[in-house]
Protein 1
Amino acid sequence: MTEDTQARIAEAVNGNEVLLFMKGSPLFPQCGFSSRAIAILDHLGVEYGSVDVLQDQAIRQGIKQFSDWPTIPQLYVKGEFVGGSDIMMEMYETGELAELLQKAGVAQKAA
């Protein structure tokens, strides 16, 4: 992975309180896992950014190295890698994800 790709990923991760690297967009997720991740974040009512890895092959490969995690989607909160959709689902079901977001002081979407 090039330093440029690494820098772009780091900039995106650090530029958003909550960031989801996904396939597609929040309005048009391109895989079931990305769709589930979006549903969880929307249900929790937090503001989040997203990066469509299908639009940029360098980012699609680079994010896997950046996090040392082989699959997409990938969730970051305050610059920290949280996990993929399975981990998000587990954390959501136990209430851990809501707690993590609350402790991080993440902005809620305006009602």
Note: The radius of gyration is 13 Å.
Protein 2
Amino acid sequence: MRSARGEATRLLSRAAPRKPEDPAAWPVWRRLIPHVLALADHTDPATDTIRMCLLLGRAGEFLEEQGDLPRSIDQLRRAYEGDRRLLGADHPNTLASRNNLAYAYQSAGNLARAIELHEQNLADLLRVLGPDHPNTLTTRNNLAQAYKQSGDLDRAIPLLEQNLADRLRVLGADHPNTLISRNNLATAYKSAGDLARAIELHEQNLADRLRVLGPDHPNTLTTRNNLAQAYRAAGDPVRAIELHEQNLADRLRVLGPDHPNTLNSRNNTASILRAAGDPRRAVELFEPLLADAERALGANHPLAGAIRHNLALARRQLASARRPQA
């Protein structure tokens, strides 16, 4: 006879979609997640099974997608620790769990912890799976992204260039992970001030993602956002505003109003309006956005902090514009 815990784990695992990053799966995950978390809260991690670890790992990925980073990290850490205990440190599932935990720390802005885990994971993946394994390439990409977020472009750009070349060779030009590598390299070039190469890569990537993934795929929307940001940096606010407004409408429709990427599109739209000389309209957009971000993500989320900073800049610019000239 099955135990109640084992039966609950089996039923939830069977119902849980396999791709937590797929928006089509999110309605199912939203119904399941309270039950998964209740199961986790009422069971001892020391008794977790492989099936339980897999369920918690998927739940953690879904929570990370939704911007619920504290609970995401809790589930991903438990999944990783369970996999390491049950399967061993070198098992591919354990290495994948560590990658997912590092990525959640990265999303939460804990870059020191993320880089530590990614560096450890890359060394182990190179040893266990080899340099061309897709998981090795994913971890190298994530480590490079963490370096970029920390401002270390000297380490980030060579890794991203190497990873794009390897993914082109191993996976092919149209593989979604190859398109991710090209996107990430383009954003790094933008951060380094090489706007011509950044725009060229983003334009190529947007065309390819529209063809391969379709206009509503989250990665297509990400590329359009990043191209708009590159246009803005290059001093082309007209094209930047047009793309940001289109992307915001599409993200509202596809992802919903509280998704972190939708909130980020609202932030980028307001920011470009402020930079283009319309601080009044920017303040009007930032004020409700800050309230929504703090409600959906929490006041301490990195995006909420960025919005708060941008609102202060817009208010200062608006006050300066209203001040009588001497």
Note: The mean pLDDT is 93.
Protein 3
Amino acid sequence: MCYNFKNKTSQSHPATELRIVLIGGRYNDFPSGKSSAGNFILGQNVFNTSRRTAQSEARQQEVFSRRVTVVDTPGWWWTWPRENTPKLDQIEIQNSVHLCPPGPHVFLLVIPVSLYFSQRVKASLKQHLELLNADVFSHTIVLFTAVDPCSDETVESKIRRSPVLQWILQQCGNRKHFLNISNREDRDQVKKLLEKIETLITNNGFRHCSVDRSQGETLRKEMRDLTERASKRFDQVQKQRNKLKLQIEGRLGVTLFEIICNISYSVCG
């Protein structure tokens, strides 16, 4: 089903609460822009953009008279299959929907305008979105981002040249928004995005994405188990390193003692 944002509007009756989950990938040293987009939407630097997002985090601010919750998530490698994504990252992505109870109203699929989309990106996206609810696409808006000045026509031109982007937009009911995060003063970009989210909520019958509460506890247990096992492995490695260090220092000490003795013997001799 294709939703037309122009048919319905919620500007006169804005929602009092909006729950947003940011999803997307990364490519080599190219940042995904999810954290920056989250900061832009909330109007505060609440997400750390100096490092990759290792775990899902929820932050909340009042934005245009709405209580907006944004959940940032770990990004997967755009061109890698899901099996190459660390298990803990996969669990964190799954757990993101449990950080904004009773469930997210919308997923914002963050795509940098300058990123090239191949068929491998398409396959990776499908696999990683399977970590979330089956109806994730019906709750998704594609959020194109740019850190340099960029026009709407540039975005449209990129879409026309990319079959993969066209497929993604088709899955998401052609819902999209462009956010020029280089222009932090232009809050009208955010206002229009929130209005599109409200229209999506209306078209979805005011239903948020369904969340299995029992899954949340299972995921938290998996995270605890993985963290504990990782901590034990780290302790074992540290003990082995310390043992090796002592052995090396001991051997160096013996060698140094032998050298001193030999020198002394030669001098005395």
Note: The longest helix spans residues 213-268.
